[in-house]
Amino acid sequence: MADDQDAAARRRVAAWAGAERKLADGPVSGTLAQRLARLADEAPESYDLGEWTDMYGDGVVAELERRTAGLLGTEAAAFFPTGTMAQQVALRCWAERTGSRTVAMHPLAHPEQWERDALTQLTGLRVVHTTGEARNPTEDEVREVAEPFGTLALELPLREAGFVLPDWDELTATVEAARERDAVVHFDGARLWECTAFYGRGLPEIAALADSVYVSFYKSLGGLSGAALAGSAALVEEATAWRHRYGGQLFQQWPAALSALVGLDRELPRLPQYVAHAKVVAVALREAFGGGAAPWSRIRPEEPHTHQFLVWLPYDAEVLTEASVRAAEETGTGLFRTWSDAGPPGVAVTEVTVGAPGLSWTAEDVAEAVREFMARVR
């Protein structure tokens, strides 16, 4: 069974990587040789490759931390090998500082969905939920949480709900409601980079609402891996001590740091274009499905808040994933990737990301890709 699953996964990766046309590059977008060659080609524009490799966080890693803090407008930032570690450390630090081991967050937030109860198992923290609605909490919901909490964690955008964001007034009011309850605010900003277009504000103004911010270097920027925790110099100094205790003080991290710097230089300025074109793609998908391609469909949100959104169709996930792979293999066009059974029986969902390769897609290109995809579903 494991061998069959591995073979299926390799087939999917090969189909998507080999597609001549796609909406975005995938997280696994080439062989080792191709990725090394790409990094060697792109990195000299972002960092002097004549410098020595890093050792325990100096050199290129320290430069990445400096650049990140500057972009977010914070006093300091610390590089972490994973966002999971960065957020656990942040919330642990805040628990010590506030005297409360209770964190308020959405039940769809990443620590609740994807981290195997790490907050409770490793840090002894406990979670209270802010709302059960598929959106970030409102100011009233924060005020009405039934028990005290020391930290409010907000995921911006909220991925599992469709990469959705509250509007600026809602966000500022929610933050203020947390302050009224003597709580600090932490932003799970793994994808915060692409929120500037929605808010019409720069990263420093957005980050300034929170006491700490976590950002990812691979989810939007195309880096190999890694994350950063940004905030005051005192908080970051404390966080680096916990990073060491958690095993995150790695001997060398130059490939990840280099690729992150490349992402900051190359991808970050392009994200507003991706967000704008995601709206075009979403409209084209809705019209293609609504025009008879599918018996029922839903796109959430109807107008994407970022360059990512969700698509729902009334078929089993296995059927839709196979159709996605076959379409990529047989037509050279990769429209969708993996589907999951995350809703009612018989309904599957997938995430759509619009990146640099998708900027050339017209509405008719989307419609044609939908026709080819649905022909293989049936």
UniProtKB/TrEMBL annotation:
GO terms for biological process: glycine biosynthetic process; L-threonine catabolic process. The keyword Lyase does not apply. Its cofactor is pyridoxal 5'-phosphate. GO terms for cellular component: cytosol. Keywords: Pyridoxal phosphate. Residues 57-287 form the Aromatic amino acid beta-eliminating lyase/threonine aldolase domain. GO terms for molecular function: L-allo-threonine aldolase activity. PANTHER family: L-THREONINE ALDOLASE, L-THREONINE ALDOLASE-RELATED. Belongs to the threonine aldolase family. This is Threonine aldolase. It comes from Streptomyces armeniacus. The lineage of its organism: Bacteria, Bacillati, Actinomycetota, Actinomycetes, Kitasatosporales.
